[in-house]
Design goal:
The chain is an alpha/beta fold. It has helices at residues 25-39, 60-72, 87-96, 106-117, and strands spanning 5-10, 13-19, 47-52, 77-83, 100-102. Helix 1 (25-39) packs parallel to helix 2 (60-72).
Length: 118
Amino acid sequence: MSERIRWMEHKGARILCADYSGLSGQEYLDLIQEFEDELLKQPPGSLVTLTDVTGTTITNEVRDRFKLLAERSAGISKGSATIGVTGFKRAIAVLIRKDLYYAASLEDAKEWLAEQAG
């Protein structure tokens, strides 16, 4: 696994983290694939996930790839949080993905995920 895909634990919760911050283009798509590969190795309902999309460029291709990831991994995660979606992008994102928790910070995300994992 690359340094951008990693495991962490917070208050006993096992969290699979993807750091997409600052990415665009093929590098972004490759990392989504790496995250999916790790996620699909896990039993259903066994973990929670955290993604950081701070400073990323969401193209149609990246958006479509995230939709595919969500379809393929349905039921694996008990909860998913994301950080880095703010302002107008957050307003749009909330309309598109109601199943995500849009956290204000890394600490906020970890606390929410620990509650979901319990």
